[in-house]
């Protein structure tokens, strides 16, 4: 039985055949567990080729786990992590970062998913530093691409990082979709991270064609002496790590990461273009990665959801999210757009 491809999430897609093949290829004989194997060493080298020779790479099971373990490794319970009000760490992780790390999240307004430099500067300049009544900011965290499918340019990330560093904050990027951002901007991965002053990164694989697996990357290994222990305590140390590592090697050694992401992005742009001028549909965010956000009448949402999968993003605004992935086809998009036009016109 085949399943129709919908627009609910890039997590709804299957696994890219090259990644599955890499898992099959790694499925021979024995390899030492917990990362003491040559597959893991090779995958770390693949990361270093992209991000620099000094990065420390920790493979984990999932994106929430990457955020929770990475942030917890650099933060004390009296400290705070500044983030967007729409951030995955704030909205979609069931409070896991706060529960596990003990720190406080301080969410900030971000109408297009992006943190505004001037707002952040005002907050940090006026902050009650050293006041025992107030959590002390330690990390600035933002997603690239954002939860709204928008992207920060390398210059925007560099400016945020410079501001954060002036206040002795570390910069964490939730890169569940960093490949989509880099592909959308047509820049290398290092332009959004290493070269922009990012300190730690949750690097996504699952949404870009992998079966499972993400990585926490520290750009200065000295930042996280506790990370090996935090990862284990956070239940994010994969025993058969070779199978995560082999997937990352397949994704990163060539240009599969970029091809998958660029294709997903192109499908989102195609959908937005096909809906341009549709009277009953208002695209609410710039389409810069692999998501289209749109507002439409509630009864139209219900009618469309009977035909294909997608999520309502904000009930109060009747705003929906249509998400594309590496395996979305132009035919999927055209059929979806035609249906949306038919229902909403
Ligand atoms: C911005 C962002 N960060 C992280 C994640 C990772 O989540 P999960 O724990 O489901 O892998 C997601 C998944 O939707 C996401 O959209």
Number of strands: 11
Shape: globular
Number of helices: 13
Please list the strands of the largest sheet in the order they lie side by side. 1-7-6-5-4-2-3
Q: What is the CA-based Rg, rounded?
A: 20 Å
Q: Roughly what fraction of the amino acids lie in strands?
A: 15-25%
- Largest sheet geometry: 7 strands, mixed
Helicity level:
25-40%
What class would the helix/strand composition place it in?
Answer: alpha/beta
List its traits.
single chain, 345 residues, alpha/beta, 13 helices, 11 strands, globular, binds pyridoxal-5'-phosphate
Description:
The structure is a single chain. The chain is of the alpha/beta class and 345 residues long. It is built from 13 helices and eleven strands. It has helices spanning 17-26, 38-51, 63-73, 88-91, 96-101, 117-125, 154-166, 178-185, 227-233, 242-252, 256-275, 298-305, 330-344; strands at residues 56-60, 79-84, 104-108, 136-143, 170-175, 200-204, 214-218, 282-283, 291-295, 311-314, 319-323. The strands form two sheets. It has a seven-stranded mixed β-sheet, sandwiched between helices. Strands 8-9-11-10 form a four-stranded antiparallel β-sheet. Helix 2 packs parallel to helix 10 (242-252) and helix 6 packs parallel to helix 7. The longest helix is centred in the last third of the chain and has 20 residues, at 256-275. Pyridoxal-5'-phosphate is lined by residues 62-64, 88, 143, 147, 174, 176, 206. Pyridoxal-5'-phosphate binds at residues 62-64, 88, 143, 147, 174, 176, 206.
Quick summary of this structure?
This protein is α/β, with parallel strands linked by helices and 345 residues long. The protein has helices at 17-26, 38-51, 63-73, 88-91, 96-101, 117-125, 154-166, 178-185, 227-233, 242-252, 256-275, 298-305, 330-344; strands spanning 56-60, 79-84, 104-108, 136-143, 170-175, 200-204, 214-218, 282-283, 291-295, 311-314, 319-323. It has 13 helices and eleven strands.
């Amino acid at each position: 039985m085949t399943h129709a491809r919908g627009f609910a999430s890039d997590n709804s897609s299957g696994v890219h055949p090259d990644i599955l093949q890499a898992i099959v290829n790694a499925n021979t004989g024995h390899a030492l567990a917990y990362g003491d194997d040559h597959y893991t060493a090779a995958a770390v080298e693949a990361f270093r080729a992209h991000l620099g020779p000094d990065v420390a790479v920790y493979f984990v099971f999932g994106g929430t786990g990457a955020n929770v373990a990475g942030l917890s490794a650099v933060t004390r319970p009296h400290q705070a992590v500044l983030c967007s009000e729409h951030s995955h760490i704030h909205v979609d992780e069931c409070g896991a970062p706060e529960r596990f790390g003990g720190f406080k999240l301080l969410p900030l307004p971000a109408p297009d998913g992006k943190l505004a430099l001037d707002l952040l500067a005002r907050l940090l300049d006026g902050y009650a530093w050293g006041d025992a009544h107030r959590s002390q900011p330690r990390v600035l965290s933002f997603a690239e691409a954002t939860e709204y499918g928008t992207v920060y340019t390398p210059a925007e990330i560099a400016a945020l990082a410079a501001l954060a560093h002036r206040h002795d904050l570390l910069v964490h990027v939730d890169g569940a979709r960093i490949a989509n951002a880099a592909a959308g901007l047509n820049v290398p991965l290092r332009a959004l991270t290493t070269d922009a002053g990012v300190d730690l990164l949750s690097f996504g694989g699952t949404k870009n064609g992998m079966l499972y697996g993400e990585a926490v990357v520290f750009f200065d290994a000295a930042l996280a002496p506790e990370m090996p222990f935090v990862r284990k305590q956070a239940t994010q140390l994969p025993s058969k790590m070779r199978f995560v590592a082999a997937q990352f090697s397949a994704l990163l050694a060539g240009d599969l990461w970029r091809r998958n992401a660029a294709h997903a992005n192109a499908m989102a742009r195609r959908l937005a273009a096909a809906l341009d001028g549709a009277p009953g549909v208002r695209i609410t965010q710039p389409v810069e990665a692999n998501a289209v956000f749109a507002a439409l009448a509630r009864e139209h949402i219900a009618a469309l959801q009977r035909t294909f999968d997608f999520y309502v993003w904000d009930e109060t605004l009747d705003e929906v999210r249509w998400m594309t992935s590496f395996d979305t086809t132009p035919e999927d998009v055209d059929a979806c757009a035609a249906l949306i036009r038919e229902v909403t016109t």
